[in-house]
Amino acid sequence: MFQKTLTRGFFCRQTGRWLLRAWSPVFALAGPIACIVSSASAGPPYLVDDPGTLDHRRLFLYVAEIGSLLEGTYTHTAPNLVLGYGIRPDLEVTFGLSGYASNTPAIALDRMNNPALALKWRFREEGRRTPALAFAYQVTLVTLDQGFGRGHSVHTLYLTGSKSLGKGLLYATGTLGGNVVSKSGANWLYGVAYDNPLGSRWRIGAQWYGNSALNSNGIPEEHAWGVGVTCVLNDYWTLLLQAGRSMKGNGDLLTFAGFLIRLTP
To answer: Nearest-CA neighbor of 259 among 226, 223, 234?
Structure first.
């Protein structure tokens, strides 16, 4: 059965709208729709990440659709593809790509965009009175409307922490230094979430997250919430679902639907 290791134991930004995250930080920025942080105990299907890392020496694939409905216009990234590998029990690497589509023909695109590479290291395990902590670094080549070789890169540092609370896990994510976006300045990403098991296969959780405005790139200040569930279908497939809403009017419905697939025994 799959579970992220934390000794037990994904924001996306682009067009000025929020979508939910997703998976290790890559999901976050791999998707071309404007969102927030980018991480199953926790993490996917939530935007807020935790310090959990993928199982040691195992290869995983995330496949998902991330969508946003605003005033009758539905915009989504599909497929979101993120390949992840557990290098060590406390270290993972992920690589992601995303497709993009909209019911507004003027911005419809049909190619894969925004390749993103991320590395996450959990440098502290949870103790009796101390939280687990992890750093993540991600570099994304923004190619949505420019194509390869003509876009700019986004460099992001994340700090995430978690502490067991009851049967579940309370965790939070924030950027360390902000998003450094070539020609566009920087903004801050943050969020908190709680994830709780329901039996041996189901988990239910909720998240709240936000980001500072990035006016030079048309990204507004955002606060949003979401609720989600995960279900372990078998030893290789886990279902990931999440839905929420912007508190600033930037999204009437924010959705995440996908699978985590273990590719190796």
So the answer is: 234
Beta strands in 107-235 (DSSP E): 113-124, 132-142, 152-165, 168-181, 189-198, 202-211, 222-232
Instruction: Report residue 125 CA to chain centroid gap.
Output: 22
Phi first, then psi: give them for residue 97, nearest 5 degrees: -140, 155
Least confident stretch, 4-8, 150-154, 256-260: 4-8
Residue 27: pLDDT band by 50, 70, 90 thresholds? Answer: very low
Give the model's confidence band at 222: pLDDT under 50 very low, under 70 low, under 90 confident, else very high. confident
Q: Tell me the pairing of strands 202-211 and 132-142.
A: unpaired
**Tokens 């992001």 correspond to what residue?**
156
Average pLDDT, the chain: 75
- Does residue 4 contact residue 40 with C-beta atoms inside 8 Å? yes
With H, G, I as helix, E, B as strand and everything else as coil, classify residue 30: helix
How many Å is the Cα radius of gyration of the chain? Answer: 17
DSSP element (H, E) containing 209: strand 202-211
Are 38 and 49 within 8 A, CB to CB?
Answer: yes
Q: Among all chains, which residue has been given the structure tokens 């497929």?
A: 79
Q: What are 32-85's pLDDT values in tens digits?
A: 233 332 333 346 888 888 999 988 999 999 999 888 888 888 777 778 889 999
Residue 6 to residue 41: CA distance in whole angstroms: 9
- The set of residues, in sequence order, having a beta carbon less than 8 Å from that of 107 and lying 6+ positions away, is 15, 75
